[in-house]
Amino acid sequence: MADSTFLTGLSYVFGWTYFTCWSLSFYPQSILNFSRKSTSGTTIDFPLINCLGFFAYTVSNIAFVYSPLIRAQYAARYKGLTPTVQFNDITFAFHGLLLCFVTVSQYLFPRAWAFAPSLGSRPSHFILGTFFGCVAGTLIIILRVWASSVRSESSAAVTGWIWLDAIYAVSYVKLVVTLIKYTPQMYVNYRNKSTVGWSILQILLDFGGGILSISQQAIDSYQQGDWSGITGNPVKFALGNVSMIYDLVFIVQHYVLYRHAGVKMGRDGDEGSDSDPLLGDDGRGGDEERRIQ
């Protein structure tokens, strides 16, 4: 009993700590844009696709926690267990969605923010294709589930198309977004041979949040005595792992591959700051873009 109480408390602490770490990572770019009164040097792609991802994540988390139908179908498919989604997951997802909307508004409505006109306010074809592809794929699954008219009986919940599968399809949108959203920054760092302009603090917070998120899920599954708590919520598990893989690449870029660029900036008092664009050209690239404006 004492061990169970300790693990429950530890899960609670881990959950809210990862929520705090991940939530804090949303602020640097919007604050930077506001302080510069411009979005020059960055692109709308990252916050725009993040809006879709966090909308999907919010909807799926709410369904897992508050929908009796989804919870019943989950229990039928996973041996009577309940989803390992908690209230802090919903809070995190909704908070992330709001912050993404704020950042996107800085690109779509620069005059409302008193921003100077800048490049990067139009999404790329790649991001638009991903955006509408995810929406179309999810709608197809929802229509497939609706057409099947499968009831939430135990046997059907294991083998048939049910509304739980539709919620999984919605949640996978967040996973797809996570798989692609960091790629442009990774390429820019490689091209510039520098991480100047990309906040390492943001990455460290994200990395810590990923470790704690997976740890919380492992504790919850251990207490249930069945690791289907992870297999039954693959998106939450994958989000932490995928994010940490990207984070490790950024950490290696910052502290190993391109550390001398950071040290040079450090002598000027700017190393590790967000004074440069998020999608981070080096100093020469930033000057070129400012001349374009």
Q: State the end-to-end CA separation.
A: 64 Å
**Number of helical stretches of at least 4 residues:** 14
The Cα radius of gyration reads 21 Å
**How many DSSP-defined strands?**
0
Low-pLDDT parts are 265-293
Secondary structure: helix percent: over 70%
Order of helices and strands: HHHHHHHHHHHHHH
| Share of β-strand residues | under 5%
Q: Which structural class best describes the helix and strand composition?
A: mainly alpha
The major sheet is characterized as: none
Would you kindly provide a written description of the structure presented here, covering whatever features stand out?
With 293 residues, the protein is mainly alpha-helical. It contains 14 helices and no strands. Helix 8 runs parallel beside helix 12. It is globular.
Describe this structure in a few short sentences.
This protein has 293 residues and is mostly helical.
Layout of helices and strands:
Elements: H1 2-24, H2 27-36, H3 45-66, H4 68-77, H5 87-108, H6 125-148, H7 154-159, H8 163-181, H9 183-192, H10 200-224, H11 228-231, H12 234-257, H13 259-267, H14 283-292
Q: What are the key terms here?
A:
293 residues; mainly alpha; 14 helices; 74% helix; 0% strand; disordered C terminus; transmembrane helix
